């Protein structure tokens, strides 16, 4: 695991966009695993800027999102499909035929999970998987205790995750309690992984990750077993590691 320490959120977003654009330009048909949430917003903004300057094209890119809330339609402003369109897809030259966000309102959610797995496999697997991390160490919506062998599945969100994500909703009751999430094994099958960590609220999670102990109680700790992981984390995220 390579750990890159940067000053702040802006520096993390800049380093992450340089990293991702290098891969998109180098690979013939890049397959990206994408994340939502606050962490990658700055990265997506930078990518849009660099796309406008002609530095990167998504013409040959296929993307697969990590997760989606169960029960939210694509056009719901809180759905992850909406987030991806709003923050990235509508501003770059990606074809919407080449993007896949799990469908949280599928009539058969189990089938939808299987379809997500199969679509990733049919594309030849994910070249670069982008990840954020939960304060509780979750990756995707794989909460503490999720088996490392898990594939894409319907998951129950932890109370702490519902609380954390309620900032995007009018009331906490509106936050869905379930999601479709790529599994830990799905994530680990990616050829390369880029994990972004910013802010003091993630400092405990970063400390657990770098302690080297691999346990299902800290889902992100599994990344210690992956051969090609880059972590870009800012000063605030290092506060616990630094003993502050
Ligand atoms: C998002 C995802 C989640 C987030 C995590 C951190 O697709 O899978 O694991 O990366 O909850 O969220 P933020 O970035 O909002 O702190």
In words, what does this structure look like?
The chain is built from seven helices and ten strands. By secondary structure, it is α/β, with parallel strands linked by helices. It has one domain (2-238): Rossmann fold. It has a seven-stranded parallel beta sheet with strand order 1-10-9-6-2-3-5, sandwiched between helices. β9, α7 and β10 (229-234) form a beta-alpha-beta unit. α1 (9-26) crosses α2. The longest helix has 18 residues, at 9-26. The site of fructose -6-phosphate has 14 residues, from loops.
Features:
three-stranded antiparallel beta sheet, seven-stranded parallel beta sheet, single chain, 244 residues, Rossmann fold, binds fructose -6-phosphate, 10 strands, alpha/beta
């Amino acid at each position: 695991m390579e750990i890159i320490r940067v000053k702040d959120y802006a520096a993390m977003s800049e380093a992450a966009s340089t990293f991702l654009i290098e891969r998109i330009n180098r690979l013939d048909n890049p397959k990206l695993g994408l994340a939502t949430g606050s962490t990658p917003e700055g990265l997506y903004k930078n990518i849009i800027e660099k796309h406008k300057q002609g530095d990167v094209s998504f013409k040959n890119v296929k993307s697969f999102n990590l997760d989606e809330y169960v029960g939210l339609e694509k056009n719901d402003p809180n759905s992850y499909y909406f987030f991806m369109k709003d923050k990235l897809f509508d501003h770059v030259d990606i074809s919407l035929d080449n993007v896949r966000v799990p469908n949280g309102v599928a009539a058969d959610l189990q089938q939808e999970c299987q379809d997500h797995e199969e679509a990733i496999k049919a594309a030849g697997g994910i070249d670069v998987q982008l990840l954020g991390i939960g304060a509780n160490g979750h990756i995707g919506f794989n909460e503490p205790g999720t088996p490392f062998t898990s594939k894409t599945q319907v998951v129950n969100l932890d109370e702490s995750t519902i609380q954390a994500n309620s900032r995007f909703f009018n009331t906490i009751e509106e936050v869905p309690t379930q999601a479709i999430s790529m599994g830990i094994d799905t994530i680990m099958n990616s050829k390369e992984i880029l994990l972004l960590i910013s802010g003091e609220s993630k400092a405990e999670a970063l400390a657990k990750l770098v302690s080297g102990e691999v346990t299902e109680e800290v889902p992100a700790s599994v990344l210690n077993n992956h051969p090609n992981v880059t972590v870009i984390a800012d000063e605030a995220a290092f506060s616990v590691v630094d003993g502050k």
